[in-house]
Every structure is written in C-alpha cells, then in structure tokens.
Write a structure and sequence with these properties.
about 750 residues, alpha/beta, nine-stranded parallel β-sheet, 22 helices, about 30% helix, globular
Length: about 750
C-alpha cells in the first residue's frame, strides 16, 4: 500500500484520426473547457489512418491556453532524440510551459521499419531509450556551456550545442511494462505511464517496487517519479480511487474519443476520485506516515502545492540557487501555477514566520533578496501570462520577463516602458518604479499600471486600483514587496514606432566631472524622446576613463534621430560610435536559449537619485571613479514625463529626480567612504539597486510622510510582518525597522 502523495491530475487520451482531423483538436479544447489538466495523443507514425502526432500537438498547443499537452507515448525510434529535445523545448517556450514528454520504444518494430527505422530487438530498443534520455536531458541542461557528447550505440551526439532550455522542467514519462524499462524510470525518469487494460494482477505492485528500488540506488526519492495510468470508461471512480490510495497512481488519463464519456470523466468521475483520496489522506487507514509526506520542518505541505514544491534534492531545484548576482540555498521552493496555489503557499509560509520568505519573479534583482538560505521561496516564474486586450490594455503575470512583454506587444505597435534589460521579471520592477528607455517620454512603469491583484499576508486575493483598495494600490507602486504577492498586473501600453534610434558612443573625456555635468545638461535639454544611460568603471591611475553611452531616441525617422543625437557628439572626444535603427524589442532581447543566471556571490551595490548632475554630484562621482576598486557605475536618465505625476501619487516619491545613479561592486573602505561622501548630495534612493539595509537606508528610500503612511498601511495589510525580507517596513507601533 503506497500513496506517494502527488497531487491528483486528470487528462484525456485521444486518437489522432486523419479522416476527421478537427475532432482531436475539438477533444483537446473540450478538455480545457472541462478543466482537465492535460490532453495526450497516440503516436503511431506508420499508421496511415492517423495524423502526425507532433503536428497535432503543436496545433493544439497553439489553440489552447491552459491545458498541458503530451504524446502518449512518442515513438522514439521514429523521433530522433536530439531533434525531439529541441522541438519540445521550443514548443514548451511558445506555449508558456505546457508541454510534457511521454516517450516509449514504439513496440511495433516491423511497422516502424517500414518507415525507415532500424529493425531493433526489444532489448536494443530499451538500450536506445536509455541513451536517448541522456541526450534529451543534456540538451535541455543549459547550466553549462560545454558541448554535449553522448556516444551511444543507437543514439549519439558529438559536441552538440546545448539549448534552448524549455520554459519549465518538462517531465519525462516513460511507457513501460518490463523490469529493465522500469529500472530506467527509477534512475532517470519523472513518471511511469502504462495502460491499465494491459496490466496483469500484481503488475502495478511489482512495477512500483522495481522503480522505487532503482530510484533509491541512485540516491533519488521514489516520490520523484509520478505514477500515471491510461484508463478506459470500463473503470469507475472507486476503481481509480483505489489505484490512487493503494498504489500511488496520481494522474488518470481517460482513453476515449467520445465527448460524452470525457465529459462524464471530468465532471463526475474525477471529483469522486478526488473526494475519496482526500478523505483517505486526511486520516483514513490508507493515509501514509508523516515521514512519507512532502514535509517542511515537520509540517506536511498541503496537497494543492505539494506537487509544485521543490526540496534541495529535487529535479529543478538548482534553478533557484542562483539569481543574476547572488547565490542561495532555500529550504523549500514553492512554484505555484495559479492564484489559488499562491494563496496556499502564502498561508503555508505564514505558519513558518521563523524562516526567511523570498518572492521570486525573474531572479534579476541586484540585491538577490528573492532568494534565501534555509527559508521558503515562492517562485512566480510560472505565472507568466501576457494577454493583450482591446485597445491598449495588457494583463501580465509577475513571472513574465519584460523582453517577452515587448515581443508580445510589438505586433500591436505598443510597448510598456520598463527597465533597460529584457531578462528582468515583471513582478520586481512593477512593484518598485520602473525607469526604462522611454521614461522621459512616458514616465515610470508604475505610471501605466491600472490595477493589480495581490495575495495578502492572510492568503486573501485582493484587487487594487485607483477605485478599489486605493491605499494598497498606492503602496504597491513603490513598496510592493512589503504588502503581498502580486499575481497579476493590468497596464495601459503606449504606442511605439516600428523602429527607434539606438546609439552606442564611447567617450574619453579629459575631465570626468565636467563631462558628467555637460552630459546631464544635454539630456535634460533634449527632446523627451531621448533617453540615455552611462556605464563607467574605474581605470586606474594614469589611464583615461572610458565612458560608454547608450542612447535611445523614440523616433522612426533616421534624420530626426541624427539631429537629436548631434548635441552629444560635442561633449568629449569619442573612441567609438555606432548608430542604428532597431525595433524596441531588440533593446530588450534575451540571448539565444534565454538568460542563464549563475550568481553565487554576495552582491554589493548602492543607489541614489539626483535632480541634476551639478558640480557637487559630478565631482563626487569623479572622486568615486578615482578610487582603487572594481565596480560598475551606471547613470540612467529619468525626468521628463516622470515629473508629470505628483510626488504623493504613489509610494515612489522621487518625481523631480532626473537621474538614477547605481554602483555595483566596490565594498572596500575607500570606495565606501567616497560613496558616503556623495550621499548628502543625492535625493532619495532606488530600492532595487541597494544592498544595504536598516532604518537609515529606508529613510533615504521614502520621504518621512511617505514612510509614515507606509507604516500605517503595513499595520493594516501585514501586521505580523510576513513580507519582511526586501526592505522591511515595520508596521506602525512595532518599533523601528530591523
């Protein structure tokens, strides 16, 4: 008697009949309408009466938005594994992480040979599958840049480039009936996918035992392997509930092409199975011992999020040990895929106030506070919806990245000004401020936010806008990490030209302070379509300082772009220059295969805002660059439309600042002292680029009236301080910040 405590899932198993090509698609869409978790398709490429399964899967993935899609099972000898790996990863990214991989040896070897597959024995086919899993996993593993070599007898790659990585950790479910295949599942697979009508008495028990023993021998937890089962209408809810309770089957896939049978399965059978299993797990005789459950600090995880949770030995956990700069090792990562699961995760975290709580959207934050050591991380990267509505309204999930948002909006001629790098997650930036390439023309990202849905400290879902919970809406726009988990944002996008001007200039000024003052004056006097960033690093005594300038001009006419760039050419001698017309999406483009984050250090950085790059500020920056240390100094332009909103319109207050100054690196006494000397000449601070904490830092981040109001709101929305690990604002009456 084994219940692996996996969450229950239900799906359909559809025949890809060629004579009625739309029927399988209709069955998939019906499954999504009924709330099924997945739809799967037979794969017999040698069967002329069937549509090609991979083509069908791609079509269905494009026609649906929630349901997961898989072959059941894909025919490996006729699906070359390296090509299959890249096809799966590509479609997974296009479908926002909805692909699963069911795979098998094909079984009908003579029929496969008619299509050009080698005529293998069953034993040879099993060896080939073993090799193929290494190839598929290896190509998906982009944590290393080393080329992939798998010198198998039946499948091989010799120095293949890795990637692209799929959007989520695609589980590999293997169709298997014999011990050798089951042992491979225990070593390498994520799921066992047989068909119940083919099973003989005792087969499930024996298969589970073999898989579990194989998993343990390789250091895996048997719970790493999901137990799935293809079933037919002859089995009722009691039969399947017994399979779940007694044998750990958690995914039931109904094999039927009849819409009424699938409807009955989804609306009647599945709820009855769920009810029986939940009753048994709550305390019936079939409930497992506590030691068998998914447990964090002796507290069993609720069923709704148990299957979404990762512990240090779980596959996929490593993704959450590195941000862009910082390394960490959380005790538990919860990766919800719905608002309800976020609510459950927050309630669970509320029972463990003694450990850190990180909220992870893109993992790009300089401070790295979305991750932690030994605590809980709620990873929101699966909540990556991007939906463009009529007009210019856009609904975006916190896990989407701004580069993806730009790509989704481009066909509509729209954009949302948002940072200057496409790998940044929506959640972190949209709850801080958002100083992007169009800041001077269109303001901050938060100025385009029209509403937000937040899971608050008590696990409730709250809608906040200018008209509803307006106090929370005020706080989220600048101090959002203190007030809950934002699970959905609604923005008004703004028009953008098909192409914009992008200049990369390298200046070599004789006098850095004078150059910075002149740069600041030029930017402030430029057309509002012009936004620029400087990147500078210390070069050491006797070496000229090279200043890289990145300038964007939101204008489609090249002559106008050149005219608006002309004032910058006279600022200082230039060592290099490049001006081109590019789509806005190119400014936020992610590298091929997606951004890889391998930070393992403890980052160090400071930030501040300045109204002008006047004498004191420019000289202080020049002194900073003269210090003997290694760091990167960036000066981003704001101003313009940022100042169109009153300073008290949101928690972010620094509307009069024309420049955001950030330093990454340093840490030595000399450079720290020079930064401290600069701080009195700055106005305010941008939270996302500051690693120091404490009351004095918080006092720089918010004016006194803003901070007082935030403390009052904290006492209302999070009185116990559950959300405290990213610039904690103590509730009113709770003393100073820790």
């Amino acid at each position: 008697m084994t219940d692996y405590l996996h969450p229950l899932r239900f799906g359909s198993f559809v025949t890809p009949i060629a004579a009625s090509p739309r029927h399988p698609v209709d069955m998939a869409m019906l499954g999504e309408e009924l709330g099924l978790d997945l739809v799967t398709f037979q794969d017999h490429p040698y069967q002329a009466d069937f549509q090609d399964t991979w083509t069908l899967i791609a079509w269905v993935a494009a026609r649906t938005s929630k349901i997961h899609v898989s072959g059941n099972v894909l025919n490996l000898p006729l699906r070359q594994p390296a090509v299959l790996a890249r096809a799966l990863a590509s479609l997974d990214r296009l479908s926002d992480g909805r692909l699963e991989l069911g795979i098998g040896t094909g079984g009908y070897f003579d029929a496969m040979a008619t299509m050009g597959a080698p005529l293998l024995t069953p034993a040879e086919a099993v060896s080939g599958l073993d090799e193929a899993l290494d190839i598929i996993r290896g190509l998906w593993d982009t944590s290393t840049q080393a080329p992939l070599h798998v010198e198998g007898k039946y499948h091989r790659v010799s120095g293949a480039a890795r990637g692209p990585a799929p959007a989520h950790d695609i589980p590999i479910w293997v169709g298997a009936y014999k011990p050798r295949m089951q042992r491979i599942i225990g070593r390498k697979g994520d799921g066992w996918l047989p068909s119940l009508p083919w099973m003989k008495p005792g087969d499930i028990e024996r298969g589970n035992r073999i898989i579990d023993e194989s998993a343990r021998k390789t250091g895996r937890d048997p719970r790493d392997v999901t137990r799935l089962m293809n079933v037919t209408p002859q089995y009722d809810a009691d039969d399947m509930a017994e399979l779940a309770i007694e044998h750990g089957i958690s995914v039931f896939i109904m094999g039927s092409d009849d819409q009424q049978e699938v409807r009955k399965f989804a609306q009647d059978t599945a709820p009855r199975i769920r009810e029986r299993v939940e009753k048994a797990r709550r305390g019936g005789s079939s409930a497992p011992a506590l030691s068998e459950a998914r447990v964090f600090r002796d507290d069993p995880l609720p069923e709704r999020i148990a299957g979404r949770s990762l512990f240090p030995k779980d596959r996929g956990y490593a993704r959450y040990t590195s941000g862009y700069f910082r390394g960490a090792r959380p005790g538990l990562v919860i990766r919800p895929e719905s608002t309800e699961e976020v609510q459950e995760a927050v309630r669970f975290a509320g029972r463990h106030r003694d450990v850190p709580l990180g909220l992870f959207s893109g993992g790009h934050g300089l401070s790295g506070r979305s991750l932690n050591n030994d605590g809980i991380v709620i990873a929101l990267d699966a909540l990556n919806e991007i939906t463009v509505s009529a007009g210019n309204r856009v609904r975006v999930g916190p896990g989407a990245r701004w580069g993806e948002v730009a790509q989704a909006l481009a066909p509509h001629g729209l954009a949302i000004t948002a940072g200057d790098y496409g790998g940044v997650g929506v959640g972190g930036l949209a709850t801080t401020a958002g100083i992007g390439w169009f800041a001077r023309e269109h303001g901050l990202t938060i100025d385009h936010l029209r509403s937000v849905e937040v899971v608050t400290a008590d696990g409730e879902l709250v809608h906040a806008s200018a008209d509803e919970n307006s106090d929370l809406f005020w706080a989220v726009r600048g101090a959002g990490a203190n007030f809950g988990v934002a699970v959905s944002f609604e923005f008004d996008a703004h028009p953008v030209a098909e192409q914009v001007g992008f200049a990369m200039l390298v200046f070599v000024p004789d006098d850095v302070a004078s150059f910075l003052t002149a740069w600041g004056t030029t930017i402030e006097n430029s057309d509002l379509t012009v936004t620029g960033t400087l990147m500078i690093s210390p070069t050491g005594p006797g070496s000229p300082t090279a200043v890289q300038a990145l300038i964007v001009v939101d204008e489609h006419d090249p002559d106008t772009v050149a005219e608006r760039l002309q004032p910058f050419a006279a600022l200082a001698p230039m060592a290099n220059q490049s001006v081109q017309m590019v789509p806005y999406t190119a400014l936020l483009e992610l590298p091929p295969g997606g951004e890889q984050q391998h930070g393992h250090s403890e980052p160090h950085g400071h930030a501040g805002l300045a109204r002008h790059l006047d004498g004191d500020v420019s000289q202080g920056l020049a002194d900073l660059l003269a210090s003997r240390s290694s760091f990167i100094l960036s000066i981003r332009s704001a101003g313009g439309a940022v100042a169109n909103q009153p300073s008290d319109s949101a928690a972010y207050a620094w509307r009069d600042a024309n420049f955001l100054i950030a330093m990454l690196g340093g840490g030595l006494g000399e450079v720290e002292q020079r930064w401290a000397d600069l701080v009195p000449h700055l106005e305010g601070m941008y939270l996302s680029f500051e690693t120091d904490t404490g009351p004095d830092v918080l006092a720089r981040a918010f004016p006194p009236d803003h901070l007082s109001r935030l403390r009052q709101l904290k006492a209302t929305w999070d009185p116990t301080g559950l959300f405290r690990d990213n610039f904690y604002i103590a509730p009113e009456g709770a003393g100073i910040e820790s």
